[in-house]
Amino acid sequence: MKSSCKLSVWLIREVWQRRIGLRFNARTNTICRFYPSCSHYAIISLEMYGFIQGVKLMLGRLKRCNPRNTDSTIDFP
Predict the structure, then answer these.
(1) What is the dihedral of CA 65, 71, 73, 77, to 10 degrees?
(2) Three-state DSSP class for 9?
(3) Could you tell me if 58 and 45 are in contact, meaning their C-beta atoms sit under 8 angstroms apart?
(4) What is the pLDDT of residues 28-55, one digit of tens each?
């Protein structure tokens, strides 16, 4: 895995999952409706497909992450 992917995965784990995401979800009383969660999906995408394709998949997932989406909640890259 290249350094850009490693840095991206580290940022997602350290900044979002361990800091911002915990407080945001607790404050807004939010539970992710997707499995795996968007942050785990992003990590899997980056590790499997590299930085460019992983970011494309991650952005597509974030677009689908809204209350109007009625598609299946089980979604793997």
Answers:
(1) -80
(2) helix
(3) yes
(4) 887 777 889 889 999 999 999 999 999 9
Cα–Cα distance list, 64 to 3, 37, 68 (Å): 28, 12, 9
Taking the CA atoms of the chain, what radius of gyration do you get in angstroms? 13
Q: Identify whether the C-beta of residue 38 lies closer than 8 Å to the C-beta of residue 32.
A: yes
The residues spanned by each domain of the chain are: 3-64
**Amino acid code (one letter) for 70:** T
Q: Which residues contact 70 (CB under 8 A, 6 or more apart)?
A: none
Name the one residue in this structure whose structure tokens are 């911002």.
20
Rounded to 5°, the CA angle 43-34-67 comes to 125
Is residue 2 within 8 A of residue 50, CB to CB? The reply is yes
pLDDT band at 1 (very low <50, low <70, confident <90, very high): low
